[in-house]
């Protein structure tokens, strides 16, 4: 709703000449100040903006109330079209790995993005980096929402040919039914064929993903987050034999999961609790590794920044020393002439 109102308002003002450029900058400044609070609502769209361009924008808008000041604008010119080139891989197929908020990019809500594009435009041929807010953690009745910058890449296979692996990216808010439909399309499986799914966990053991889930969970409602699916995980679709039996020759650990209706309620609850605890431990280990990676990235950035500042100081000192030497030589010559 905010995005629609902002777009209509900007179009109306542009059409009637009501708002001056400085007024538009003031409006943009207000929007940017509000977005810093980052009130995430599930399903909302947010956009990634490259850090250096966003910093130029903040300087141009003026954080100290000097919007429109000609002397100030002289030192902080128009940032130009939105440019996220540094966030993309060399081939432009996707964003680079290991990007961090406030280190490589900033997040802006959809209505702020509309203002930015309307006022400054965007580099030709460059796609916006739009991401949705998803429910990131759902344990102990607590909900945490976060912008999903990186999607989950799933490896998909079929029991008839496990060498034919296909990779697809999904949001953790996508349902298992959506994954099922993609796999049916990728492996050309008709609606009349009966099949079931297996997933390989981090211990290389297999768990069943059943269509008939316990107690009321379904492929239509369960998400990839609910199923604890992660990037690099493999899902295999198993096709039922014409004689009505399931293939059993390939090695799978047929442990029950919360998605298997063949076990009772007590077993499901116990297994679910154990799986949840194991997943918590794995997530904590991943968070530690992620934190270490982030610290290393920040350390390298700070080292490079310090190196650049040191070079500037040394260059300035060199210039001052040369000027001092020239001044001394000039004074000595004048004394000799006298």
Describe the fold and architecture.
The structure is a single chain. By secondary structure, this protein is an alpha+beta fold. It contains seven helices and nine strands, in the order ααβααβαββββαβββα. The protein has helices at 2-16, 21-35, 51-61, 70-75, 110-120, 176-186, 265-337; strands at 45-50, 105-109, 130-139, 142-147, 152-158, 161-170, 195-200, 206-209, 234-239. The strands form two sheets. It has a five-stranded mixed sheet with strand order 6-5-9-7-8, with helices on one face. Strand 3 (130-139) and strand 4 form a beta hairpin. The longest helix is centred in the last third of the chain and has 73 residues, at 265-337. The chain is elongated and about 115 Å long. The model is unreliable at 1-19, 64-73, 211-217 and 250-270 (pLDDT under 50).
- Note the main sheet: 5 strands, mixed
Any low-confidence stretches, pLDDT <50, length ≥5? 1-19, 64-73, 211-217, 250-270
Order of helices and strands: HHEHHEHEEEEHEEEH
| Helicity, as a percent range | 40-55%
| Computed CA radius of gyration, to the nearest angstrom | 29 Å
**Oligomeric state of this protein:** single chain
In percent, how much strand structure appears in the residues?
15-25%
Shape: elongated
The overall strand count is: 9
Strand order of the largest sheet: 6-5-9-7-8
């Amino acid at each position: 709703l905010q995005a629609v109102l902002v777009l209509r308002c900007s179009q109306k003002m542009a059409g009637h000449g009501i708002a001056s450029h400085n007024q538009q900058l003031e409006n943009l400044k207000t929007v940017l100040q509000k977005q810093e609070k980052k009130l995430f609502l599930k399903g909302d769209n947010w956009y990634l903006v490259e850090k250096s361009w966003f910093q130029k924008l903040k300087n141009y808008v003026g954080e100290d109330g000097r919007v429109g000041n000609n002397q100030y604008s002289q030192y902080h010119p128009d940032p130009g079209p939105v440019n996220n080139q540094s966030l993309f891989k060399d081939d432009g197929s996707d964003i680079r790995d290991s990007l961090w908020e406030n280190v490589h990019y900033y997040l802006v809500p959809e209505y702020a993005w509309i203002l930015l594009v309307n006022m400054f435009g965007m580099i030709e041929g460059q796609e916006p980096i739009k991401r949705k807010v998803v429910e990131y953690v759902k344990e102990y009745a607590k909900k945490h929402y976060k912008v999903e910058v990186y999607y989950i890449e799933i490896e998909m296979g079929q029991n008839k040919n496990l060498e034919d692996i296909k990779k697809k990216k999904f949001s953790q808010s996508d349902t298992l039914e959506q994954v099922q439909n993609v796999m049916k399309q990728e492996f050309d499986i008709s609606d009349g064929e009966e099949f079931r799914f297996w997933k390989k966990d981090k211990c290389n053991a297999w768990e069943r993903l059943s269509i008939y889930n316990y107690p009321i969970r379904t492929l239509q409602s369960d998400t990839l987050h609910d199923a604890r699916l992660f990037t690099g995980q493999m899902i295999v679709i198993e096709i039922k034999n014409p004689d009505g039996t399931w293939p059993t020759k390939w090695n799978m650990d047929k442990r029950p999961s919360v998605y298997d209706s063949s076990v009772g309620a007590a077993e499901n609850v116990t297994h679910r609790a154990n799986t949840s605890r194991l997943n918590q431990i794995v997530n904590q280990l991943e968070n530690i590794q992620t934190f270490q990676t982030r610290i290393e990235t920040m350390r390298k950035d700070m080292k490079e920044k310090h190196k650049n500042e040191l070079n500037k100081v040394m260059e300035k000192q060199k210039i001052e020393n040369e000027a001092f030497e020239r001044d001394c030589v000039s004074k000595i010559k004048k004394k000799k002439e006298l």
